[in-house]
Amino acid sequence: MKHFIAFALLLCSVAAVFGSVSVSAEDVRHRPLNDLNGYFPFHPPASLEQWETRKEYVRRQILVATGLWPMPTKTPLNPVLHGKIQRDGYTVEKVYFESAPGLFVTGNLYRPTNIQGKVPGVMLAHGHHKDARLDMTPEGKLRGLIADGAERFERAGRSTYQSQCRQLALMGCVVWQWDMLGDSDSIQLSRELVHGFAKQRPEMNTTKHWGLFSPQAEAHCQNVMGLQTLNAVRGLDFLLSLPEVDSERVAVTGASGGGTQTMILAAIDERIKLSFPVVMVSTAMQGGCTCENASLLRVNTGNVEFAALAAPRPQGMNTADDWTKEMATKGFPDLQQLYALYGKKGDVFLKRGEHFPHNYNAVTRSAFYTFLNKHFKLGFQTPVIEHDFEPLPPEQLTVWNDQHPAPKAADPDFERNLLAWFTNDAEQQLSAAASTPEGLKNVILPAAEVIIGRTYANAGDVTWELDDEQDHGDYVQHTGTLLNKTHSEEVNVVWLCPKHPSGRVVIWLDDSGKTAVCSDDGSVNPAVQTLVQAGVTVLGADLFLQNGKTMKQTRVVENPREFAGYTFGYNHALFAQRTHDVLSIVRFLRHADSGPCPNPDLKSVAIAGWHHSGPIAAVAGGIAGDAIDRTAIDTKGFRFGQVLDYRDPMFLPGGAKYLDLPGLIALHAPRPLWLAGESQTPATITTAYLAASESGALVTFIGDAAQKQTAASEWLLK
């Protein structure tokens, strides 16, 4: 009884958001939304071949989500190194460079003295501790850490970051420790914005000159996690630009938020040869900060699988008395199984430490030094442990001074201009890609598959269940449900099946669902009637949550902070879910052995989309490729870049980045396309058809709006 009441309350909450809807208990999409506190298991592949396919997709998913597909143009770093400090056996320098024009990355560079030949490089990312690189642990807290065995020394323990950098330099490594955005010397974006964003800013939520966290930024895959990931990539560029660094021995490590940066960098950049993410690899909580989340990022994946992307390169991690405490039984055995497929089971390592709190303590640091020493063949006695020393005070580490003045802090104009630069840079790269069939196939289509979260190949196994059948003389009307067994989804559909079929099928989509084909009183849309009379089978569908009523806002997770990534970093947007339904329909038509309209001689599948369903049909058609022979769509001038509410039913993370709707429509080339709703044909679409030498396959309707559907039906019959 309790379970029934709970489910009933869930249905009521859904109805409160969406209005009166018919909810099917079988469709998994009606379940509560996923969030960062869910369960994220990693399922090891059965073979390396299977893994390589999955690995490529998840890596691409990370890159798209963080705005790095394609990688922003790598402009000159313009590095500045100054204020070298000579210490016993190593030096410390102050460094800043530009990861993008005007965006400064700040930190310290540690180098061993008397370098001979090539030496290893280590990147050290820090977590969310305020002013982490410059911070000194208070005496009272430090004594407690020493008493618990987490630290060893009263002097060195005051700065664990300096302790780690110093130890690695004394082991012969060049160490780059950089600041997280909004921390220490990284002041151009405030800490409150980067790590504490909670509420949308009206002045930054505009269709031009927008800021971070706005629906516009989300639609362009612009987010704090992406900026930090780019800083890490450019930091690796900087480290490898140093002539003494051995490109075959480069490692990255960090704890908490730094652990997130560590696993992400190792996942996307093969130049990292060893990684050691600390207190972050887990099947439980995935990272609570806005800087650790991004829309699209963890949909159907999670941190353990992110760590798996580093395989078979050596990788260590740890457990603590936090969300990582079950890693020894949940997650790590799966990573071992994957590494075993490579014959490298011993190259993934777990340092148990459930008695320690959430930190990068001396015991774990020693485990990292020892792991690094083994795999980089440094030749030190093991286990490697730190020694006491006097850390430098913050004023000797800070990058900015009178000779090197700091940029303006928390500057909204800088924020807007930075995102504008990324937008323009992406548009230039993507316009070039969309102008060739190869670029559409290799750049735009792979991104679209991530944005929608499904490819046509994995659309699923779809079956048919009949509810009702009515004979109307020349045709038979079938009403029922398409069941996607693979993804546990359902689509309610109606078929109008001519008794003398031509072998052609048209999927007819509109916001009113299947009633756009035939209404409840049995009357048929005149444009549809034209098709049926010509022997064309027409299918109408209620896409997910379509009920003929206007939906105002979609669901979001129970988090008071107005950040799209907390919802859409773990769940598909409604637009994507409706696109999934279209892919399910096409998959059924192309692969089902039987259906309501027996038609062994299927000749073609076409799709027509109207009103808000026009863009859905357009995107589905682009992803489905040759499975759809021709497409007729009315865009009504829609652009993802005009949506200013991340709860809008038409909001799609990443939807505006890839040249917006025209870029996704361009994927139809060279297949026949009938286009309405545009005052003139977008250049992106025209260029794609010209490049495919099929300009005649593109037809733009510019006639009377009342004649659109009639004109489309006539075109579909050609």
TrEMBL record:
The name this protein carries in UniProt is Acetyl xylan esterase
Q: What InterPro entries does UniProt report for this protein, alphabetically?
A: AB_hydrolase_fold (IPR029058), AXE1_dom (IPR008391), FrsA_esterase (IPR050261)
Keyword DNA-binding carried by entry: no
Domain Acetyl xylan esterase: residue ranges: 230-278
Keywords noted in UniProt: Signal
Cited SUPFAM superfamilies: alpha/beta-Hydrolases
Q: Signal peptide: which range, if any?
A: 1-25
Short name of one Pfam family for this protein? AXE1
